[in-house]
Amino acid sequence: MQAGRVTRDLTPAQRIAWLRLIRTENIGPVTFRQLLNRFGSAEAALEALPDISAKAGRPMQAISQARAEDEVAGLDRYGARLVGQGEPGYPEHLLQISGAPPLLTLAGGERLDWRRTVGIVGARNASSAGVKMTRVLAGDLGASGYSVVSGLARGIDAAAHRASLETGTIAVLAGGFDRIYPEENIPLAHDILDNGGALLTEMPLGWEPRSRDFPRRNRLVSGLSLGVVVVEAAKRSGSLITARLALEQNRDVFAVPGSPLDPRAEGGNLLIQQGARLVTSAADIIEVVSSADPARHALFEPEWQPDEAAEQNEPAPDDRSKLLQALSTTPVDVDELIAQTGIAPQAMQILLLELDIGGQIEWSSGQLVALRYS
Amino acid sequence: MQAGRVTRDLTPAQRIAWLRLIRTENIGPVTFRQLLNRFGSAEAALEALPDISAKAGRPMQAISQARAEDEVAGLDRYGARLVGQGEPGYPEHLLQISGAPPLLTLAGGERLDWRRTVGIVGARNASSAGVKMTRVLAGDLGASGYSVVSGLARGIDAAAHRASLETGTIAVLAGGFDRIYPEENIPLAHDILDNGGALLTEMPLGWEPRSRDFPRRNRLVSGLSLGVVVVEAAKRSGSLITARLALEQNRDVFAVPGSPLDPRAEGGNLLIQQGARLVTSAADIIEVVSSADPARHALFEPEWQPDEAAEQNEPAPDDRSKLLQALSTTPVDVDELIAQTGIAPQAMQILLLELDIGGQIEWSSGQLVALRYS
After folding, report:
1. Helices B186-194 and B156-163, packing angle to 10 deg
2. Which of A181, B9, B74, B86 is exposed most, by the fewest CB atoms within 10 A?
């Protein structure tokens, strides 16, 4: 852990309240943080939820205490634990990314180096040359003291984990802990835990990964890493999405080149043309990441601000209708909305939070907001 | 030819005088220019040569009129002509490089586009994938109106010429016109001329190329080109020398990537790591060179200044010994020599020219001068 960073354990009751809140429909990491900032605690936010969702025209409840306790008990059986943002065991690099999960489900990894980390991603239908290159890179990174992060997919991901089993490997799942995908990698997942590696996910127990969950998972692969290496990737592929996310998170992006005659080299070559660093050996990576500090270069401030909610200016009676009038399905900047409607900034924040929880708006790029297509 | 550039034909007598001067021992392109600047013409420089070389302690003669006329007659039999710097047929891009040859031996190429030119170089022991990539690049560049420049070597060079035979190709020789190397490419040389392409060299008729002549040739390949593409190259190879020369000449450098597991990709990958542009198609090259203008970006002023020699300050009687005292085998800046010895700049220039012709000094990086190891 970084010197000077304040961490504190959640109480069991707080952890259950956090879990209930984050597992509730329409509440993602950003809304979760806004709720905690406004109401001061997850418990208070849970109490307020029926009221503020009703204001947005769509009354809703958080998931029940019993369901949350069931998940905790279930995770226990898998040897997994929940770790909250701000707790000592929460991976520090993740604090620096936009939309970091408030709660992670985590197993193993107690003695891993979570700060010296390199992500390796690539094609599921990897060539034997790609697999060999991955083995060389992951093996040499491990031998140099770096933990290897990947997504437990077929091909390059699996090769990266296998080559770093003994030196430290971190697998990020797209689904629940009991829904490892692909099934053929379940034995590899066990090997990872048996060797002191880590498995983690932000998704609930029992969650079957859908296609949209993979890019979501990828932002954690890059977010956990100082830099991300793309080994083999087609021009449109999840690996390129990971590379883009890594850039947005201000991580170093590396790519292994290949012959232009090889379709599996297209993505990597394209990344290099766009500014990724060409990699031929682990030394090329270490030279760069050894001086990388994602905290210092972070584009985003740590999102979790565990201070008490400031006094709020409640919205005026007609503010909500004014705001709905001003919104459309075209994303618009919040500052522009404030200027147009004359709604006070604090009141605007409250109204948007309510509409968000009510499922009526969606955010893009942090500061742009639009009505949801219904 | 560039609008506004003044060109003029040499008279037959001037051409012979130029040839005698440049074919003389110790007189390279830079010394040639200094002599013309000082004496106003090659004829005058030839007359002065015995005297100034004697001053440097090593009396010498230019090659004879008869020998020069023999070369011209010999070139005639090969259908080749001599073209001088400043003449209309002299390739314009070459005017921008340091040490451009005063005289080129040239055959064919009358209807080539000498301004839209791309060099392609690479391994002699090319792989079939490398040859295929070269065919694709040279073919597509040709189809887009670019002339392809290369060195008529085995492997990549030959593939580049063959793929651009019909659209325009320029082969630069490392030896004399009658000493094409390797011999297996003599038929290709004939094909180039038969298809309107060009063969050129700065070396005398009958000159058998030695190993040091190949890098010398390579500076003309890059100098003739808007940009140079390296297709397959080992880590220490002539192709990398060409790339370095191209950078010094402010040309764009491109490299085709390859798997780090393939030794023939090492040079290209290294170049990309050092800043060369990664190339997967001719479009990647055209995008860059279509807006390149070597004249505008030239690091060097055109070297040939056909003005009359300015009045010279002759050196004082003891200046020569002062200068020889100050010189050593460690290269030193001319300005520093002037400051140390108190010799007037004009006199310094004359003395250095004499010592140069006398074979007593050598230049490095344009402005650094040292005693030759004897």
Report:
1. 20
2. B9
Query: B71 and B155, same structural domain?
Result: no
Distance CA A62, CA B249 (A): 68
Nearest-CA distance A156 → chain B (Å):
15
Q: Mutating which of B134, B271, B278 best tests the A interface, going by the most A Cβ atoms within 10 A?
A: B278
Residues B97 and B242 in one domain: no
User: Rounded to a whole number, what is the distance in Å from the CA of B162 to chain A's nearest CA?
Assistant: 20
Which residue from A minimizes the CA distance to B272?
A278
* A45 plus A128 within the same structural domain: no
- How many domains does chain B fold into? 3
Nearest-CA residue of chain B relative to A280? B260
Q: How far is CA A152 from the centre of its chain?
A: 16
Look up the ipTM and state it: 0.78
Query: Running DSSP on this structure, what letter comes out for residue B93?
Result: G
Quote the DSSP letter at residue B264.
Answer: G
Q: Which of A258, A272, A277 sits opposite B259 (nearest CB)?
A: A258
**Spatial strand order in the sheet of A361-364:** A332-333, A368-371, A361-364
- pTM of the full structure: 0.81
Same domain for B148 and B52: no
Alpha-carbon gap: B155 to the closest alpha carbon of chain A (Å): 17
Q: Do B258 and A258 touch (CB under 8 A)?
A: yes
Same domain, A121 and A54: no
Per-residue pLDDT 10s for chain B (374 aa) are 444 466 789 999 999 999 999 999 889 888 898 899 889 999 999 999 988 888 877 788 899 999 999 999 999 999 999 999 989 999 999 998 988 999 999 999 999 999 999 999 999 999 999 999 999 999 999 999 999 999 999 999 999 999 999 999 999 999 999 999 999 999 999 999 999 999 999 999 999 999 989 989 999 999 999 999 999 998 888 888 889 889 889 999 999 999 999 999 999 999 999 999 999 999 999 999 998 765 554 433 433 444 444 445 788 889 988 898 889 888 888 888 998 899 988 888 888 888 888 888 888 766 788 888 76
Within a domain: A298: no
Does residue B297 belong to any structural domain of this protein? Answer: no
Number of A to B CB contacts under 8 A, please give it: 63
Q: Check A272 against B284: CB less than 8 A apart.
A: no
8 Å CB contact of B259 and A265? yes
Q: How far apart are the first and last CA of chain A?
A: 44
CATH code where residue A239 lies: 3.40.50.450
Residues in B closer than 8 angstroms to A230, CB to CB, are none
Is the Cβ–Cβ distance between A254 and A285 less than 8 Å? yes
- Report how far apart, in Å, the C-alpha atoms of A309 and of each of A9, A103, A363 are: 20, 20, 22
